[in-house]
Protein backbone atom coordinates (compact mmCIF):
# COMPACT_ATOMS: atom_id res chain seq x y z
CA UNK A 1 0.00 0.00 0.00
CA UNK A 2 2.98 2.30 -0.50
CA UNK A 3 2.80 5.19 -2.91
CA UNK A 4 4.21 4.67 -6.40
CA UNK A 5 5.62 7.87 -7.91
CA UNK A 6 5.95 8.76 -11.58
CA UNK A 7 7.59 11.88 -13.03
CA UNK A 8 8.83 13.27 -16.32
CA UNK A 9 11.79 14.97 -14.63
CA UNK A 10 14.36 12.39 -15.72
CA UNK A 11 12.83 11.54 -19.09
CA UNK A 12 14.50 13.14 -22.15
CA UNK A 13 12.13 15.69 -23.76
CA UNK A 14 11.74 13.76 -27.05
CA UNK A 15 10.57 10.67 -25.13
CA UNK A 16 8.20 12.32 -22.68
CA UNK A 17 4.96 12.01 -24.63
CA UNK A 18 5.30 8.27 -25.22
CA UNK A 19 6.50 7.62 -21.67
CA UNK A 20 3.69 9.62 -20.08
CA UNK A 21 1.05 7.92 -22.24
CA UNK A 22 2.36 4.58 -20.96
CA UNK A 23 2.15 5.79 -17.34
CA UNK A 24 -1.46 6.92 -17.80
CA UNK A 25 -2.41 3.60 -19.43
CA UNK A 26 -0.81 1.66 -16.57
CA UNK A 27 -2.37 3.66 -13.72
CA UNK A 28 -5.83 4.20 -15.27
CA UNK A 29 -6.44 2.61 -18.68
CA UNK A 30 -5.35 3.34 -22.27
CA UNK A 31 -6.16 6.87 -23.44
CA UNK A 32 -5.14 9.06 -26.37
CA UNK A 33 -3.25 12.09 -25.04
CA UNK A 34 -2.97 15.43 -26.83
CA UNK A 35 -0.21 17.72 -25.55
CA UNK A 36 0.06 21.46 -26.01
CA UNK A 37 3.82 20.95 -26.29
CA UNK A 38 4.94 17.34 -26.04
CA UNK A 39 8.65 18.14 -25.72
CA UNK A 40 8.11 20.68 -22.92
CA UNK A 41 5.50 18.66 -21.08
CA UNK A 42 5.97 18.06 -17.35
CA UNK A 43 3.92 15.78 -15.14
CA UNK A 44 3.90 14.06 -11.76
CA UNK A 45 1.64 11.23 -10.64
CA UNK A 46 1.49 9.27 -7.38
CA UNK A 47 -0.85 6.34 -6.82
CA UNK A 48 -1.63 3.45 -4.51
CA UNK A 49 -4.37 0.93 -3.77
CA UNK A 50 -6.66 1.31 -0.76
CA UNK A 51 -8.79 -1.79 -0.51
CA UNK A 52 -10.43 -2.22 -3.91
CA UNK A 53 -10.06 1.48 -4.78
CA UNK A 54 -7.01 3.05 -6.42
CA UNK A 55 -6.18 6.60 -5.33
CA UNK A 56 -3.95 8.92 -7.34
CA UNK A 57 -2.84 12.53 -7.53
CA UNK A 58 -2.11 13.84 -11.02
CA UNK A 59 -0.24 17.14 -11.57
CA UNK A 60 0.43 18.15 -15.15
CA UNK A 61 0.48 21.00 -17.63
CA UNK A 62 -2.55 21.44 -19.98
CA UNK A 63 -3.61 18.15 -21.51
CA UNK A 64 -6.47 16.40 -23.29
CA UNK A 65 -7.37 12.74 -22.74
CA UNK A 66 -9.64 10.71 -25.00
CA UNK A 67 -11.10 7.29 -24.42
CA UNK A 68 -11.66 5.92 -27.93
CA UNK A 69 -13.61 2.88 -29.19
CA UNK A 70 -10.36 1.09 -30.02
CA UNK A 71 -9.33 1.36 -26.37
CA UNK A 72 -12.60 -0.10 -25.12
CA UNK A 73 -12.83 -3.05 -27.52
CA UNK A 74 -9.76 -4.69 -25.99
CA UNK A 75 -10.60 -4.19 -22.31
CA UNK A 76 -12.04 -6.88 -20.05
CA UNK A 77 -12.59 -4.89 -16.84
CA UNK A 78 -15.09 -2.07 -16.43
CA UNK A 79 -14.10 0.82 -14.17
CA UNK A 80 -15.17 4.31 -13.18
CA UNK A 81 -12.96 7.29 -12.48
CA UNK A 82 -14.01 9.93 -9.95
CA UNK A 83 -12.07 13.15 -10.58
CA UNK A 84 -11.75 16.10 -8.19
CA UNK A 85 -9.93 19.08 -9.79
CA UNK A 86 -7.98 21.06 -7.20
CA UNK A 87 -6.37 23.87 -9.18
CA UNK A 88 -8.21 24.69 -12.42
CA UNK A 89 -11.45 23.72 -14.20
CA UNK A 90 -11.84 20.59 -16.32
CA UNK A 91 -14.13 19.98 -19.30
CA UNK A 92 -15.66 16.55 -19.73
CA UNK A 93 -17.74 15.12 -22.57
CA UNK A 94 -19.48 11.72 -22.49
CA UNK A 95 -22.85 10.27 -23.56
CA UNK A 96 -23.75 13.46 -25.48
CA UNK A 97 -23.27 15.64 -22.40
CA UNK A 98 -20.51 18.20 -21.87
CA UNK A 99 -19.87 19.69 -18.44
CA UNK A 100 -17.34 22.06 -16.90
CA UNK A 101 -16.23 21.16 -13.39
CA UNK A 102 -14.59 23.84 -11.26
CA UNK A 103 -12.32 23.11 -8.27
CA UNK A 104 -14.61 22.18 -5.40
CA UNK A 105 -16.73 19.89 -7.54
CA UNK A 106 -16.23 16.37 -8.87
CA UNK A 107 -17.35 14.22 -11.79
CA UNK A 108 -17.88 10.53 -12.51
CA UNK A 109 -16.38 9.10 -15.70
CA UNK A 110 -17.40 5.79 -17.23
CA UNK A 111 -14.37 3.87 -18.45
CA UNK A 112 -16.25 1.51 -20.76
CA UNK A 113 -17.67 4.29 -22.98
CA UNK A 114 -15.88 6.88 -25.14
CA UNK A 115 -15.15 10.26 -23.56
CA UNK A 116 -13.03 13.41 -23.81
CA UNK A 117 -11.45 15.10 -20.77
CA UNK A 118 -9.30 18.23 -20.86
CA UNK A 119 -8.01 21.29 -18.99
CA UNK A 120 -6.53 24.46 -20.48
CA UNK A 121 -4.34 25.38 -17.51
CA UNK A 122 -1.93 23.44 -15.34
CA UNK A 123 -3.92 21.29 -12.97
CA UNK A 124 -3.78 19.22 -9.80
CA UNK A 125 -6.29 16.37 -9.85
CA UNK A 126 -7.30 13.82 -7.25
CA UNK A 127 -8.56 10.70 -9.02
CA UNK A 128 -10.20 7.54 -7.66
CA UNK A 129 -10.48 4.42 -9.80
CA UNK A 130 -13.43 2.25 -8.76
CA UNK A 131 -14.36 -1.12 -10.31
CA UNK A 132 -17.82 -0.94 -11.87
CA UNK A 133 -19.03 -4.13 -10.11
CA UNK A 134 -18.04 -2.62 -6.76
CA UNK A 135 -19.90 0.65 -7.31
CA UNK A 136 -22.81 -1.33 -8.70
CA UNK A 137 -23.25 -3.16 -5.39
CA UNK A 138 -24.00 0.16 -3.69
CA UNK A 139 -25.64 2.16 -6.46
CA UNK A 140 -28.18 1.05 -9.03
CA UNK A 141 -27.43 2.19 -12.57
CA UNK A 142 -24.33 4.28 -11.76
CA UNK A 143 -24.00 5.18 -15.45
CA UNK A 144 -26.81 7.73 -15.10
CA UNK A 145 -24.56 9.86 -12.88
CA UNK A 146 -21.75 10.21 -15.43
CA UNK A 147 -21.00 13.57 -17.05
CA UNK A 148 -22.67 15.52 -14.25
CA UNK A 149 -21.03 17.94 -11.85
CA UNK A 150 -21.45 17.23 -8.14
CA UNK A 151 -20.90 19.64 -5.28
CA UNK A 152 -17.78 18.73 -3.34
CA UNK A 153 -18.01 21.56 -0.80
CA UNK A 154 -21.20 20.83 1.14
CA UNK A 155 -23.56 18.03 2.06
CA UNK A 156 -22.64 14.44 1.32
CA UNK A 157 -20.42 15.59 -1.56
CA UNK A 158 -18.42 17.68 0.88
CA UNK A 159 -17.94 14.72 3.23
CA UNK A 160 -16.88 12.49 0.35
CA UNK A 161 -14.41 15.06 -1.01
CA UNK A 162 -12.91 15.71 2.41
CA UNK A 163 -12.40 12.00 3.05
CA UNK A 164 -10.89 11.48 -0.41
CA UNK A 165 -8.42 14.33 0.16
CA UNK A 166 -7.44 13.05 3.60
CA UNK A 167 -7.01 9.57 2.18
CA UNK A 168 -4.34 10.96 -0.12
CA UNK A 169 -2.80 13.66 2.07
CA UNK A 170 -2.58 11.71 5.35
CA UNK A 171 -0.65 8.48 4.98
CA UNK A 172 -2.18 6.67 7.97
CA UNK A 173 -3.40 3.38 6.45
CA UNK A 174 -0.82 0.66 7.00
CA UNK A 175 -2.73 -2.64 6.91
CA UNK A 176 -5.17 -4.41 4.62
CA UNK A 177 -7.99 -4.62 7.16
CA UNK A 178 -8.02 -0.85 7.70
CA UNK A 179 -7.81 -0.24 3.97
CA UNK A 180 -10.86 -2.45 3.34
CA UNK A 181 -12.95 -0.59 5.93
CA UNK A 182 -11.85 2.87 4.76
CA UNK A 183 -12.48 2.09 1.10
CA UNK A 184 -15.95 0.77 1.91
CA UNK A 185 -16.85 3.93 3.82
CA UNK A 186 -15.52 6.06 0.97
CA UNK A 187 -17.71 4.22 -1.55
CA UNK A 188 -20.72 4.61 0.74
CA UNK A 189 -20.12 8.38 0.95
CA UNK A 190 -19.67 8.54 -2.83
CA UNK A 191 -22.99 6.73 -3.27
CA UNK A 192 -24.77 9.18 -0.99
CA UNK A 193 -23.16 12.12 -2.79
CA UNK A 194 -24.17 10.85 -6.22
CA UNK A 195 -27.75 10.30 -5.07
CA UNK A 196 -27.92 13.73 -3.40
CA UNK A 197 -28.76 16.04 -6.28
CA UNK A 198 -30.41 18.73 -4.22
CA UNK A 199 -28.04 21.42 -5.51
CA UNK A 200 -29.06 21.07 -9.14
CA UNK A 201 -31.72 18.47 -9.76
CA UNK A 202 -33.67 16.05 -7.58
CA UNK A 203 -34.04 12.38 -8.24
CA UNK A 204 -37.76 12.75 -8.83
CA UNK A 205 -37.80 16.37 -9.89
CA UNK A 206 -39.30 17.33 -6.54
CA UNK A 207 -37.53 18.48 -3.37
CA UNK A 208 -40.39 17.12 -1.27
CA UNK A 209 -40.23 13.65 -2.81
CA UNK A 210 -36.45 13.65 -2.48
CA UNK A 211 -36.72 14.53 1.21
CA UNK A 212 -39.26 11.75 1.78
CA UNK A 213 -37.08 9.25 -0.06
CA UNK A 214 -34.04 10.22 1.98
CA UNK A 215 -36.03 9.97 5.21
CA UNK A 216 -37.22 6.50 4.26
CA UNK A 217 -33.66 5.46 3.39
CA UNK A 218 -32.38 6.75 6.73
CA UNK A 219 -35.09 4.85 8.60
CA UNK A 220 -34.26 1.63 6.75
CA UNK A 221 -30.53 2.04 7.47
CA UNK A 222 -31.25 2.49 11.19
CA UNK A 223 -33.52 -0.57 11.44
CA UNK A 224 -31.83 -3.22 9.30
CA UNK A 225 -31.72 -5.69 12.20
CA UNK A 226 -35.40 -5.15 13.08
CA UNK A 227 -37.34 -8.26 11.98
CA UNK A 228 -40.54 -6.20 11.72
CA UNK A 229 -39.05 -3.80 9.15
CA UNK A 230 -41.51 -3.63 6.26
CA UNK A 231 -43.06 -1.12 3.84
CA UNK A 232 -45.88 -0.63 6.36
CA UNK A 233 -43.60 0.25 9.27
CA UNK A 234 -41.47 2.53 7.09
CA UNK A 235 -44.50 4.37 5.71
CA UNK A 236 -45.90 4.86 9.23
CA UNK A 237 -42.57 6.11 10.57
CA UNK A 238 -42.19 8.59 7.70
CA UNK A 239 -45.79 9.81 7.83
CA UNK A 240 -46.69 8.77 4.28
CA UNK A 241 -48.98 6.17 2.75
CA UNK A 242 -47.64 2.81 1.67
CA UNK A 243 -48.68 3.53 -1.92
CA UNK A 244 -46.77 6.82 -1.91
CA UNK A 245 -43.73 5.04 -0.46
CA UNK A 246 -43.77 2.51 -3.29
CA UNK A 247 -44.05 5.37 -5.79
CA UNK A 248 -40.97 7.01 -4.26
CA UNK A 249 -38.84 3.93 -4.79
CA UNK A 250 -40.10 3.51 -8.34
CA UNK A 251 -38.51 6.92 -8.98
CA UNK A 252 -35.11 5.31 -8.42
CA UNK A 253 -35.87 2.14 -10.38
CA UNK A 254 -36.47 -0.14 -7.44
CA UNK A 255 -38.89 -1.34 -4.81
CA UNK A 256 -38.99 -0.87 -1.06
CA UNK A 257 -38.46 -4.57 -0.36
CA UNK A 258 -35.60 -4.72 -2.82
CA UNK A 259 -33.89 -1.75 -1.16
CA UNK A 260 -34.29 -3.33 2.29
CA UNK A 261 -32.78 -6.60 1.06
CA UNK A 262 -29.89 -4.84 -0.69
CA UNK A 263 -29.04 -2.73 2.35
CA UNK A 264 -29.16 -5.79 4.60
CA UNK A 265 -26.82 -7.65 2.27
CA UNK A 266 -24.39 -4.70 2.21
CA UNK A 267 -24.47 -4.47 6.02
CA UNK A 268 -24.03 -8.22 6.37
CA UNK A 269 -21.04 -8.12 4.02
CA UNK A 270 -19.46 -5.40 6.15
CA UNK A 271 -19.96 -7.51 9.29
CA UNK A 272 -18.41 -10.53 7.57
CA UNK A 273 -15.28 -8.46 7.01
CA UNK A 274 -14.83 -7.12 10.53
CA UNK A 275 -16.56 -9.63 12.87
CA UNK A 276 -14.55 -12.80 12.34
CA UNK A 277 -15.83 -14.19 15.64
CA UNK A 278 -19.40 -14.32 14.34
CA UNK A 279 -20.60 -17.24 12.24
CA UNK A 280 -22.18 -16.76 8.84
CA UNK A 281 -25.46 -18.16 10.17
CA UNK A 282 -25.45 -15.69 13.07
CA UNK A 283 -24.91 -12.76 10.70
CA UNK A 284 -27.64 -14.02 8.39
CA UNK A 285 -30.19 -14.20 11.22
CA UNK A 286 -29.09 -10.83 12.58
CA UNK A 287 -30.09 -9.14 9.34
CA UNK A 288 -33.42 -10.89 8.95
CA UNK A 289 -32.64 -13.75 6.56
CA UNK A 290 -34.62 -16.92 7.16
CA UNK A 291 -31.64 -19.27 7.07
CA UNK A 292 -28.03 -19.47 5.96
CA UNK A 293 -28.95 -21.10 2.63
CA UNK A 294 -31.24 -18.22 1.66
CA UNK A 295 -28.63 -15.70 2.76
CA UNK A 296 -25.89 -17.42 0.74
CA UNK A 297 -28.06 -17.59 -2.36
CA UNK A 298 -29.01 -13.90 -2.23
CA UNK A 299 -25.45 -12.87 -1.31
CA UNK A 300 -23.98 -14.65 -4.32
CA UNK A 301 -26.62 -13.21 -6.64
CA UNK A 302 -25.78 -9.70 -5.42
CA UNK A 303 -21.98 -9.85 -5.10
CA UNK A 304 -20.92 -12.77 -7.30
CA UNK A 305 -19.50 -14.89 -4.48
CA UNK A 306 -20.80 -16.73 -1.40
CA UNK A 307 -20.41 -15.31 2.13
CA UNK A 308 -17.78 -17.95 2.94
CA UNK A 309 -15.85 -17.13 -0.25
CA UNK A 310 -16.00 -13.42 0.56
CA UNK A 311 -14.78 -13.94 4.12
CA UNK A 312 -11.95 -16.20 2.92
CA UNK A 313 -10.86 -13.67 0.30
CA UNK A 314 -10.84 -10.85 2.87
CA UNK A 315 -8.79 -12.96 5.24
3D architecture notes:
Residues 214-313 form the HTH araC/xylS-type domain. Keywords: DNA-binding, Transcription, Transcription regulation. This is Helix-turn-helix domain-containing protein. This protein is an alpha+beta fold. The chain has a domain at 4-154: Jelly Rolls (Sandwich). 43% of the residues lie in helices and 22% in strands. It is built from twelve helices and twelve strands. The protein has helices spanning 16-27, 69-72, 132-138, 155-169, 176-195, 207-222, 231-238, 242-250, 256-274, 280-286, 292-303, 307-314, and strands at 4-7, 32-35, 43-50, 53-60, 63-67, 79-85, 90-94, 97-101, 105-110, 115-119, 123-131, 149-151. The strands form two sheets. It has a seven-stranded antiparallel β-sheet, with helices on both faces. A five-stranded antiparallel β-sheet has the order 2-5-10-7-8. A hairpin with a 2-residue loop joins strand 7 (90-94) and strand 8 (97-101). The longest helix is centred in the middle third of the chain and has 20 residues, at 176-195. The two termini are 17 Å apart.
**Helix-and-strand structural type:** alpha+beta
Count of separate DSSP helical elements: 12
CATH architecture label name of the domain at 4-154: Sandwich
Q: Specify Rg, calculated over alpha carbons.
A: 21 Å
Q: What is the CATH superfamily of the domain at 4-154?
A: Jelly Rolls
* SSE run: EHEEEEHEEEEEEHEHHHHHHHHH
Distance between the termini: 17 Å
Strand tally: 12
CATH top level assignment of the domain at 4-154? Mainly Beta
Gross morphology is globular
Multimeric organization: single chain
Give the helix level as a range of percent. Answer: 40-55%
Q: Give the strand order, joined by hyphens, for the main sheet.
A: 1-3-4-11-6-9-12
Strand content: 15-25%
Largest sheet: 7 strands, antiparallel
> On the 0-100 scale, what is the average pLDDT?
87
